[in-house]
Amino acid sequence: MPLEAPARIVSELTSRGYNAEREAVTRLAAADDPTAALERVLETVPEDALVVRTDHVRRALSTDGTDGPAGSESGPDAGSGDESPSADVPPSVSTGTSAASGRESAERAPVETEGSPTANRSADPTQRSLEIVGDMTGQSTGTGEYSDFVSVFRDRLDRLGAKLRGRVNHRPATAIQDMPGGSEVAMVGLVNDIRSTASGHWLIELEDATGTFPWLVMKDREYVDLVDELLCDEVLAMEGTLADDSGIAFVDSMHFPDVPRTHEPSTADRHVQAALISDVHVGSQEFMTDAWNAFADWLHTPEAQHVEYLLLAGDMVEGVGVYPDQDEELDIVDIYEQYEAFSEHLKKIPGDIEVVMIPGNHDAVRLAEPQPGFDEELREIMSAHDPQIVSNPSMVTLEGVSVLMYHGVSLDEVIAELPEAKASYDDPHKAMYHLLKKRHVAPQFGGHTRLAPEEKDYLIIDEVPDIFHTGHVHKLGFGKYHDVLAINSGCWQAQTDFQKSVNIDPDAGFAPIVDLDTLDVTVQKFS
Amino acid sequence: MRPEDEQYFEGLEAQLDEAFDVAERAKARGGDPKPAVEIPVAKDMADRVENILGIDGVAERVRELEGQMSREEAALELAEDFAEGRVGDYETKAGKVEGAVRTAVALLTEGVVAAPIEGIDKVEILENDDGTEFVNVYYAGPIRSAGGTAQALSVLVADYTRALVGIEQYDARDEEVERYAEEIALYDKETGLQYTPKAKEAKFIAKHLPIMLDGEATGDEEVSGFRDLERVDTNSARGGMCLVLGEGIALKAPKIQRYTRNLDEVDWPWLQDLIDGNYYDDEGEPGDDESDGDGDEAETAESDADAEADDDSATDDSEGPPRVETSEKFLRDLIAGRPVFSHPCAHGGFRLRYGRARNHGFATAGVHPAAMHLVDDFLATGTQIKTERPGKAAGVVPVDSLEGPTVKLANGDVRRIDDPEDALEIRNGVEAILDLGEYLVNYGEFVENNHPLAPASYTYEWWVQDLEAAGADVQALEDDPRIDLEFPDPEDALEWAVEYDAPLHPEYTYLWHDISVDAFCTLADAVADGRLEGEIDGDATLVLEYTDPVREALETIVLEHRQRADENRIEIGDWRPFVRTLGCEVRRTAADGAALEPNEQTPTVELERTWSDDDLSSRARTWGHEAEGDNAIEAVTEVAPFRVRERAPTRIGNRMGRPEKSESRDLSPAVHTLFPIGEAGGTQRNVADAATHAETMSDTPGVVELQVGRQRCDSCGTETFKNRCPDCDERTTPDYRCPDCDQRLEPDEAGRVECDRCEREGTCVETREIDVHEEFRDALESVGERENAFEILKGVKGLSSQNKIPEPIEKGILRAKHDVSSFKDGTVRYDMTDLPVTSVRASELDVDVGQLQALGYEEDIHGEPLTHEDQLVELKVQDIVLSDGAAEHMLRTADFIDDLLEQYYGLEPYYEFEDRQELVGELVFGMAPHTSAATVGRVIGFTSAAVGYAHPYFHAAKRRNCDGDEDCVMLLLDGLLNFSKSFLPDQRGGKMDAPLVMSSRIDPSEIDDEAHNMDVVSQYPREFYLATREQADPEEVDVEIAEANLGTDLEYTGFDHTHDTTNIAMGPDLSAYKTLGSMMDKMDAQLELSRKLAAVDETDVAERVIEYHFLPDLIGNLRAFSRQETRCLDCGEKFRRMPLTGDCRECGGRVNLTVHKGSVNKYMQTAIQVAEEYDCRDYTKQRLEVLERSLESIFENDKNKQSGIEDFM
What we know:
With about 525 residues, chain A is α/β, with parallel strands linked by helices. Chain A folds into three domains: about 1-75, Helicase, Ruva Protein, domain 3; about 130-140 and about 260-525, Purple Acid Phosphatase, chain A, domain 2; about 165-255, CATH 2.40.50.140. Chain A has 15 helices and 19 strands. Chain A has a six-stranded mixed beta sheet, covered by helices on one side. In chain A, helix 2 runs parallel beside helix 4 (about 55-65), helix 3 crosses helix 4 and helix 6 (about 100-110) runs parallel beside helix 10. The longest helix of chain A has 20 residues, at about 145-165. Chain A is elongated and about 90 Å long. Chain B is α+β, with helices and mostly antiparallel strands. Chain B is built from 39 helices and 43 strands. An eight-stranded mixed beta sheet of chain B has the order 5-21-8-9-7-13-6-20. Chain B has a seven-stranded antiparallel beta sheet with strand order 12-10-11-16-17-15-14, with helices on one face. Chain B has a six-stranded mixed barrel with strand order 32-38-35-37-36-39. In chain B, helix 8 crosses helix 9 (about 200-210), helix 10 crosses helix 11 (about 270-275) and helix 36 runs parallel beside helix 39. The longest helix of chain B has 27 residues, at about 5-30. Chain B is globular. The interface between A and B is large, with 52 and 46 residues.
C-alpha cells in the first residue's frame, strides 16, 4: 500500500461516523497497511465511542503486533517538536498549500511513528484550560418591553461610565445647566446626536441619566478629527468651558473608555497555538470544501501539533432565508442538513482540539445581539466533536489568554459611518480598533445592528481582552491596538454573486494561527 | 367636427361660463387668497402647456408648430427658440436650457401632468475637469409621470439646447460612471424600475451622455461603493435620474435615435451601439472573461424579455399546437387576502375570447358576472387583476354575453352557470370550479402592449364566419325564426357541421385539447360500453360507468353531466355531438336478433366505436404541447366525421390586484378647514377643542401660537393673517420682510422676494398668537351657524404652503355641517376606479329617456330615434356615470356650495338639489393623481358599481387608463370657489394632483395615445381569428382602431363594440376583499377559494403568501423592533433611542416603544399553520421555525419560560 494521506484516513473515519485524535490518525497512517489497520481499529473500538483515540489505535495495532514502535508514548519533550516540518515551511509564510503540506506530512509519517510530535497536543490535557465569561445562552431574560431597553442603555452608561468618571470631574447634565457661564465643566454620557452647524462646527449631544447637554466642537480645534470617529450611543467623557448663557459647552477635550496604554497582555505558559476562523458557510454553493479539507488535513500534520484550540466566530452554515430567494443559491436547502454537514466537516478536525464557537448572522438563532448559543436541537446535531457553544459575544480564556469572540455585524456599520482612512473592508482590524476604543462591540443603536434588550448590556467590552476575534466581513486582517491583538478571520466561502456585484473580494480559505505564548500570528493558506 | 359635436361642446362651455360668472362674483366678495377664480380654462393643449409652465408665448408658438410637425419635432424647434431667446425671458444659458427642457416635457405630456414643473428641479452649469462647462439637469421623482419617451427626449432637448447656446459636453469621471451603475441597481432594489439596465449598459450610457443627469435623493438607502463624490450631492439613490436613465434613455433609445438623426448639432452615435447591445465590445476587452460572462447574462435577460415575442418562431420550428408561453410574473408579490384565480395558462382558468364589450377596452378584462360571484365575490366591477397577458393589469368589467364558468356541485352535477342569479343560488353547493368561463380581451389591448396575438378560443363570432366561408347562407339562417344560430340544438349543429363541412359549432365543441390521447381513447371505450336511456329520438340520456379516468376526462373537457358515484353511473344529457366527436356511431340493431324476447318490439340501440387505438396516426398519438400525446385534438380530427377546432387554446392566468374604489378622498385625519390650530386641537385636530385649550392655568384659553403668513392692509396699514382687513375690509397683500434686516420687501416680476442688501430670501411667515376661540366664534356668527350644526370641525396642525395663508374658518364650518372634508388644495373630492364605457342604456343609469334627450341624446346606436329606456346610445366623450356613493357625496357637496354661496358669499344658491336626478347634466371636474390639469365632465347617470364609468377618451384626457387606476371628481363650483394655489404645500410634488388648469373640451389627438389603440368595430374578421393561430403581430391584422378617425369628423363617434352586456353593474357591487373583515378572514377566504379552483395550485398560493407577505412582514417588523424609535405617549415627541431618564425629555411624559411584540408576531402562528395545512416546502417551514425561535428568544424570559420540576426542588 502506498503512503496514505491522513486526509483519506480521516475521511474514511468520518464517513463511518467517527472523529479521530490526531495522533491516532498519524499512527494509522504510519501503519504498514493503513487500510487494514483502520479496519482492525474500527473492529476493536468500543461501541459507544465517537472519537477514535490514540489508545484505540495502539491497542488494536499492538495486539496485532504489526506496529511495534507504537508501544508507549515517548516523552513529550523529545525535541521532535522542532523537527523538519517547521524547518521546511516557516510558520510565518502563508503560501503553503494544502496538497503540499498533506503530502509532506504523509511522507514524513513513518519517521514520526515514534509518536512524539503528537505528544505536545494531547499528552497532558491537564495543561489546558478554557474558561468562558459572558455567555448569555439560557440567560435571556428580556421580554422586549420598553423598560428592558432603558435598562440596557443605563447599564451601558453605568459600566462604561465608571471607566471614565475617575478621569474627569464630571457633573450630571441637569447640574451643568445650572452652573455659571464660563465654568470649567465635564460630563460622562452616551452620544445622543451628532450634527454639524451651519458654520461647520460640530454639535454633540451627550446624554446621561438626568438628561442631555449639547457640546460644541469647534472646527478648528485639533481634536475635531475625532468627531468623524464618533458613533451614536457610545459612551465618552467631554471636558470644556460653559458658554455665557450656560446653554452649551465648548469642548476642550474628549475621553474614550479605551484600552489603557499600560495594558499588558497575558500569555500562555507554554508553546500552544489557537486557530481563529469564522464564516464557514456550509450549505452555500460557494462553500470551499477542498480548502476546508486541506485545513483539516493540515491540523493532522506535525506542523500543526501545537494547535490545540479552534475558535469559530460565527456563520457555521449559510442558513435559510437570510436574503430573498436564497434557496436558489443553496447547496443544502434544509437548515438541519446544513448543520449536519457542518458537523461532518467539524469531525475532520482532530478530536483532541478544543473547539469553541459562537453564532453569526447566518446561523439559526435570533439576529438581534447578543445572540444566544445554539439551541438543544442544533447542539445535538453538532455533538460529535463536543464543541463549546456560547453566545455572541463571549469571552474565552485559553490558558490565561483572554479572547473576545464577536461575530462582527457592527463592523459593517463602523466601516460605513467612519471615513475610509479610519475603517475599511481592506483593513477590517482597524475597524475593530474603534470598537476596542469604545469598549463596546456594537455601540450604535437604530442603524444596521440589531439589539435585543437584556437586563444588562452584554455587548460591553468590560475587561480588556488579550485577543479580539471577529469575522463577518469575509476579509482577513490583524494587528495590535494598545497591545490587544485584533483579528478578523477570513471565510471559507468563495466569492458570491452578490459580493461580485458590490465588488467585495473575500479572503477565503485562510486560517490565522495565534501563538498563545507570544500572541504572534501566522496565516495558513488552504485555497 | 360634426355640428352636433360642436353643439355639445358649446353647451358644456356655456354651462361652464355660467358657473364661472357665479364663482367670480363670489370670489370678489369673500376672503379667499385671490379675488378671482384660480383655475384658468385651457381650450387646447397649447394653452395648458403655457398655463402649467407659466412661460408666456409658448402657447402661440406651439399652435404655430402644431400643424406642421410632430410634437417631438415641435419640442426641438422650441428648444431653438429658447436658445435664441425668441421664447422665454431667460438671461443665463442654464435658464435657456431649463426652459427648453421643461417645455419639451410639458409638450410631450400634453400639458396635463406635473412632471415639467415637479419632475425637473433645476438646470445648472458645472465645470468639467478640463475647465470647460457642461450642463447638469436635476431631475426629481415626479418625472416618473412623464413616461419614458418624454424623459428620454428631455435629455435630447437639453443636449440640443446645450449645443445651440455653446456649452461643452459632459465628461463623466470614472467614479461617476460607476456610481450611476451602482445607484440604478440600488434604486431598482429599493423602488423598482420597469426596465433596469445591467451594470455594463448603465455605465455605457453614463459614459456617453453629453449632459449630466443628476437629481434629488429619493430614498433612505445609500450606495455603499461610490460615495461622497464631488459633483454628486447625495449618497442616496436619485430617483428621477434613475428613471430617466433606465426607463428613458435605455428603454427608449430607438425613439430618440429617430430625432438625433435629423439634428446636425447633436451627435449620439453611441445610441446605435446601445440599441444593438454592442457596448460589451466597446469596452475593448473582448477576451476578458468577466465581460463575456456578463454578456451572456445580458443576452439571457434579453431573450427572457423577448420570450413572448419569440413565441411564434418557436412554434414554427416544433410540431405541436400553437400555444403561448407561460409567464409567472403576475404572481409576484402575492398578498394575503387577494386570491389567485388561475395559475399561468392553467387548465380550468379563464379562456381568452377576443372582442370588445361596450364597457370594455383600454386595459380592462371582461369576465362573466356569474364567475365574479363564484369566485366568492372577490371580483366585482372595477376590481383590478394582475394578469398574465397581454398587459400587466386590467380592470374587471362584467360581460354576460360570454360563456360562464362550469362548476361541480356537491350532488355530483357538473353545470355551466350562465346566469348570475343561478350562480348565487348554487354557490354554497360548489365543490370545485372546473372552468372559469371566458375572459374577454379586445384586439386593441394586444396592439397597445405590442403582444403577439394569442390563439383565439373558438367562439360563435368566428364560427359564424367559418360557416359563411364554408358556403352556408348565414343570412337566411339568421332570419329563420326556428333557428337560434348562436345557441342551436345539437341536431342543427351536427347538421351544419356535416352539411357545410364547417367546423362543429363552439357550443358543442369541448376542450378536447386539454385531455391526453389516452384519456380520449378511454372516453371512446366508455361511450362504446355505455347505454342510452329514454327515447332515442327524444330526450335520451347517455349513461356511462362511473370510473375516475372517465370522470376526470369529462371534467377536463368541460362537458355538462351528472356524476352519481354511489349508483356507479355518469349521465350525459346532450350526448350526440359528444359521441360523434369521439368517433362513435349510434347503431340500431333489428329486433330479430333478439327474437327470444317477444315483448322486445323497439329496436335496441347500441353505441359503436368506429375506430381502434391503432387507427390513430403517429402524429395524432404524439400531438402535444408540453408532453407527447397530451393533446387529443388531432385524434379528434382523425376520428370525428366533421372538423373540430380547438375550443380554448389560450388560458390566461391572473390574480386579484387592488380592490375597486369609490370613496371620498379624506386627508388623514380628515380636514374640514385648512386653518391651523397646532397641537391645541388634540389628535383629532378639533377646532372647538383648540378654542378652549390652554397650555397652563395662566394662559388665555384659545390663544395658540401658530405660524401663519403676515398680510398687510395697504389702505390702513393693519397687520393681519387674513385676506381681508378686519378693520376696513380692504384686500390685504403678503407682507414680506427680510429675515436678517427686517426690511419690508416687494416681490419682483418673477414672484421672487429677495433682500438686495442681505441677499436672503424674504418671507411673510411669522409665528404669532392667534385667538382661535375668537376666530371660531366670529366665523360661526358670520355664516349664522351654531356649534351643534356639526359633530366636529377639524382643522390642520400647521400649514405647509409657502406663504401659510389660512383658509377662512367659515368654509370649514359649512363643510362640517354637510359632512364633507377638504383636500390639501381646498377642494372636496371623491375617488373612483376608472372604467370605460362607450354606449349606455337609460335603464341601467337610473335615468329616463327624457333626461337623456335633454342632454342631446336623440338616436340610439343604430340610428333609431330614442324612445325607450333599453335602447343603447353612444356616450358623448365628456359624459360620465357616477357611482351611487359619488352621487350621494356630490349632493352633499352641492348643499355645501349652496350654503357657502348664501351664508358666506351672500349670493343666491346655485344648485338647489332635491334628489340625485337633478345632478344629471351638471358639470364636474375629473382630476387624476400626478397630473395638474382637470378635465370638465358632465354627469349622465348613476350606477351601483363602485366605479367611475366614463368614455375612454375622458380617462385618457386625464392620462389614466383603466387597469385599476383611480382618480377623483369634484363638483364644478367647488373647484372654482375653493381651490387656491396658495394652499398647496411648498414641497416636492406639492403641485401634483392640483387643478392648475382645466380643459373644457377634449381634443382626441391631444390625449394619451393609448386610447387611440382601442378597436371600434362590431366584428373582427375571420382572418383575424386565423392570424391568432399563427400568433401574428397585432399590427399585421386589419381591425379598425380609434386612431383611424383622428382628425376627421368622426373622431368623437363610431365606437362600436362586439359584445353587449345587460348592465354595466352586474356581479357583486363590492369585492369580498372589501366586505370581509380582518386580514385573517380575507386570507382564509383566499386559500379556501384556491382549493376550489381547478386552475389554482393551493400549495403554491400558500407558499407565495408566506414568502411575499408573512415573511417580509415578520422579518421587517422584527428588524424594526430591534432598532426602533420610541415615542412619547403624551406629547408625541420621538426619540431615536430610549431616553436614559426613561421619561420624555420634552414633557416628562410616558415614553413607549413604537414597535411592540404584538405587531411583530401577529402573523407568526397563522403563517406556521398555513405552511402546515397547505403542505409548504421544508425550506419555508424552516424559515418560519427559525423566526419563531428568534421571537421566543427576544420576547420570552429564559428563566421563567418553563416551570420544570427542578424549579421547585
